[in-house]
Design goal:
The chain is α/β, with parallel strands linked by helices. It contains eleven helices and twelve strands. Bound molecules: adenosine-5'-triphosphate (ATP), iron/sulfur cluster and magnesium ion.
Length: about 325
């Protein structure tokens, strides 16, 4: 743990495998990281690298075929052994999620007010309906929606407003940790900027922590205090925002940033580098970037690199920085 920082969530050797007839798909494989109080950690990486799996796994809203191992502490409580019933008490109250498409988690035949009442009363049965409506009006006001819309249905909202409503619903109980999975990807640029600004304001107002999942380097540059780079189920680098942009150490992070033509960090789309990430089905030992890395060594193919702590708050998963590998093994 970093000195002087309160840890809200800690993952230790966190693994999520989807069990298939052909073997396990190792979507998240040995991720260790912490999220501090009131900070935003951005998670970036190519499509299929395990970002959404990690986010959904924290709420334990994965398909039945998923298996989770390791440790995930939320305010000191390990989530892995928790039953569905115990998780229902935490979801919405302590940890909540904002999805790319709010309609996937909203019931189209339920009025806006009923979504709020259901969420609030699930966690606080002692709250009366009137009190719940008051809380809902307040949360909607925080995202700039009039309480008169409480009687509408979600489909009566525009995309941007629906996302605002989703944000209001996700923060109405003041959770400690909010997971936002591509929250602005389906919105146009102007609405996207408004929603990001809103998320920033709300987060500082309710003092929650956030894991922001995105493929857009411009979004994390704007929003995140620290950035985690995922590659093929591994967290390959985790560091403060400016370190990732200006002094990245992992060859994958470096390649990602070098492949972006525009060097303005506020205007970066994640670009793609030559080749493809490996299949995660039955994947074994070794560095997963080995076939695309310009600095590959012998050891990289045989053994999974350790998480090397370069300095406080800067982790790199790469043999280049591990001092326990002899020169013979490197060559
Ligand atoms: N239900 C499932 N069964 C088997 N494999 C799955 C399942 N869901 C996801 N996967 C696989 O797990 C890996 C991680 O997927 P995930 O959706 O977490 O990636 P992602 O980083 O969020 O990608 P994107 O940027 O496209 O949203 C991928 O290889 C994907 O094919
Ligand atoms: S461990 Fe080896 S192959 Fe992997 S990124 Fe580092 S140098 Fe490249
Ligand atoms: Mg995803």
């Amino acid at each position: 743990m970093s000195a002087g920082k309160d840890v809200v969530c800690r993952m230790e050797n966190f693994r999520v495998y989807y069990m298939t007839f052909d073997g396990p798909v190792k979507a998240v494989d040995g991720v260790s990281m912490e999220v501090y109080k009131e900070e935003t950690v951005g998670l970036v990486g190519e499509s299929g690298c395990g970002k959404s799996t990690l986010g959904s796994a924290l709420l334990k809203i994965l398909p039945r075929t998923a298996r989770m191992e390791g440790r995930v502490y939320l305010e000191g409580e390990d989530l892995i052994p928790k039953s569905e019933k115990e998780m229902q008490k935490l979801r919405g109250a302590k940890i909540s999620m904002i999805f790319q498409d709010p309609m996937t988690s909203l019931n189209p035949i339920m009025k806006v007010k009923d979504h709020f009442i259901e969420t609030i009363k699930t966690h606080k049965p002692e709250v009366s309906e009137d009190q719940a409506l008051e809380m809902a009006s307040k949360a909607l006001a925080e995202v700039g929606i009039s309480e008169s819309r409480l009687n509408d249905y979600p489909f009566q909202f525009s995309g941007g407003m629906r996302q605002r409503m989703m944000i209001a619903l996700s923060i109405v109980l003041r959770p400690t940790l909010v997971i936002a999975d591509e929250p602005t990807t389906s919105l146009d640029v102007i609405v996207q900027a408004q929603i990001l600004q809103l998320m920033k304001e709300i987060q500082s107002h309710i003092r929650s922590s956030m894991i922001l999942i995105t493929h857009d380097l411009g979004v994390v540059a704007e929003m995140a205090h620290r950035i985690g780079v995922m590659y093929a189920g591994h967290l390959v680098e985790l560091a403060p925002r400016d370190t990732i942009y200006y002094k990245p150490l992992h060859p994958y992070t470096q390649a990602l940033l070098e492949s972006v033509p525009n060097t303005d960090i506020n205007d970066m789309e994640l670009s793609y580098i030559d080749g493809y990430p490996p299949s995660l089905l039955n994947i074994g030992e070794g560095c997963r970037f080995v076939d695309r890395c310009p600095k590959t060594m012998k050891v990289c193919r045989d053994r999974t690199p350790p998480d090397v702590e370069i300095k406080e708050d800067h982790m790199v998963k790469c043999w280049l920085y591990a001092d326990n590998v002899g020169e013979v093994e490197r060559s």
